[in-house]
Amino acid sequence: MTVAVGLHAVTKRFGDVVAVDAVDLEIADGEFFSLLGPSGCGKTTTLRMIAGLEFPTEGSIRIFDEEVALAPPNKRPVNTVFQSYALFPHMTVAENVGFGLAMRKVPDAELRRRVGEAIELVRLGGMENRRPTQLSGGQQQRVALARALVNRPKVLLLDEPLGALDLKLRQAMQVELKDIQREVGITFVYVTHDQEEALTMSDRIGVMDAGRLLQVGTAEDIYERPANRFVADFIGETNFLDGVIVAEGHVEIGAAHTVRARTGAPVGTAVTLMLRPEKIQLHHPDEVVDGRNRLEGTVRHRLYFGDSLYYEIELKSGDTIDVRVENVPSLPRWDPGQRVAVSFHHDAADALTE
Amino acid sequence: MNVPTHAAASRNADRALSVHGVVVFLFLYVPILLLVVFSFSDASNLSVWGGWSLRWYRKMFTNDPLLRSMRNSVVVALVSTGISTVLGTAAALALERYRRWLGKRTFDALLYLPVIIPDVTMGVMLLMWFTTINWSLSLTTIILSHIAFNISFVAIVVRARLANLDPSLEEAAADLYADRWQAFRRVTLPLIMPGIVGGALLALTLSLDDVVITSLVQGPGSTTLPVFVFGLIKRQVTPEINAVSTVMLLASMVLVFGSLAFQREPRAGANPEAP
Q: What percent of chain A has pLDDT over 90?
């Protein structure tokens, strides 16, 4: 694997505040990599350090094996799509897109050809002579993308580029961005706080919180096997149950139940059992369930979501869990106050130690 | 029942407000109108109307000391505006763009001082300074004094413009391979130009109008037009003063309207529907 971007023990401090805390990360050439986390987690600062708009307090940043940690932004083979787009308001679309090439003194004929190609790539043909203020939000976003891609950067950095767009347009642009990335074959580093965006677009995701990189993996890795409670909580919806390991692969919850779970932790360890609402099934209390963990409880609430139903179940241990059930005719509906059995496969229950 | 009473009250209020508006405008503009009208009077005395004439304008343009003072005014205004625009813009950039430097807060506060302190104080201060360093008063001392107060005005106007400028525009320029100078020249400067021009026009107006400071720091033969007119009034009051004042009024108005027009940043062809 060729490493496009390599971060080594990168730390950024603003005064007393540690914005990025000893981050190690390798992003492969051609990869669509997302940095995901809540606002203030350090993902944008990390991106800005790769761009050269901030410099790390400590650590090394390499882009295709070239150390760039302290190089100014205009000396790096990367380009950025800014969150606010940062289009130059006094220039036309074509002048905006051609800015980088003009700065690098690309000959006029080649500049015009490449600007034309980039504008075609983002499907803005005919808009060349408009000013950014005459464009819609989605069009401005395409100009920002073309302005970065036209320079053929080795790595394209995107800072929440779809954040300002409405939902429908955002979903359309997600698909388009992914297509463009496949077409140009450039490494994309994408910063977002929107987990759905990260899950659907990325080859791999890095989840950050409080300046630290908590987990790096594919969308499936992160959703199915989160490294800790924060990641499990941040990505999707999750039930958390406090428990203790009582035997190898067995967790006791609230002294009432013992269930099998996926864990390597030794006996006696306090753990948090993580259980996704869609991986739990509801049964009649008399029904026998084979090969699965079985708990008993009472329905407290039922919420109707159209495509699905959410049940809040109070377990015998006193814990409550949410269960998501597809709204299909073959499944029975349960009413509040009804006693039910709850079952889940032991592979769907992760015992987290952090 | 309540509705018509309310409507009547509102109608009365409207009427009272429009009358008030007219009175305020009369209060402001009648003296100016009289000044302009009497500049065209043929009489030698301002208390009588002597019929239409351009006599005082002719006299004005053959009055050598007056013409010299007019030339001085133009030289002082242009030179002091040029220098204070460059320095004021640099100060604005330093204060807005470079967040951390020693003494920034102090400098920030001091920059506003020339705007706040009375002209007389400023004039006496400058006079004492020039006397202390034994610099003989001349056109140069007037220019230096005007630069001293104009820097603040330019800096304030340019800063307002810079504060509204998205800092990521400069970052985008740097990201697109521009060095610091190119980013400034190609992105920052064109975008703050309306502020710079507006500040310069304001400086020009202030310099052309200043009496108090100039009268304190002028040397022999270096009188500017407003100071000259001020001296003229003390000796004799003829419509010539009206003629001179009308010319100055016209020049000031052109500059002020120019300054306003530039700061309004007309976005040619902007699409109001675009967000």
A: 72
Q: Hey, what are B229's tokens? A: 């007119």
For chain B, give every domain's residue range.
2-55, 63-263
What confidence tens digit (pLDDT) does each residue in A20-40 have?
999 999 999 999 999 999 998
CATH of A238-352, one of 2.40.50.1020, 3.40.50.261, 2.40.50.100, 3.20.20.80: 2.40.50.100
Q: pTM for the full model? A: 0.80
A3-233: CATH superfamily: P-loop containing nucleotide triphosphate hydrolases (3.40.50.300)
B148-189 per-position pLDDT tens digit:
999 999 999 999 999 889 989 999 999 999 999 999 999 999
* Beta bridge partner(s), residue A247: A250
B175 and A84 within 8 Å at the Cβ level: the answer is no
Confidence band for B100, pLDDT divided at 50, 70 and 90 = low
3-state secondary structure chain B: CHHHHHHHHHHHHHHHHHHHHHHHHHHHHHHHHHHHHHCCECCCCCCCCCCECCHHHHHHCCCHHHHHHHHHHHHHHHHHHHHHHHHHHHHHHHHHHCCCCCCHHHHHHHHHHHHHCCHHHHHHHHHHHHHHCCCCCCHHHHHHHHHHHHHHHHHHHHHHHHHCCCHHHHHHHHHCCCCHHHHHHHHHHHHHHHHHHHHHHHHHHHHHHCCHHHHHHCCCCCCCHHHHHHHHHHHCCCHHHHHHHHHHHHHHHHHHHHHHHHHCCCCCCCCCCCC
Rounded CA-CA distance A85/A162 in Å is: 10
* Cβ separation B171–A86 shorter than 8 A: yes
Q: Of 3.30.1330.10, 1.10.3720.10, 1.20.1740.10, 2.60.200.30, which CATH number belongs to B63-263?
A: 1.10.3720.10
* Residue boundaries of the structural domains of chain A: 3-233, 238-352
Across the interface, whether the CB atoms of A82 and B174 are under 8 A apart is answered no
Of A74, A82, A151, the CB nearest to B168: A82
Q: How far apart are CA B146 and CA B84, in angstroms?
A: 8
Nearest to B174 among A72, A84, A148 (CB): A72
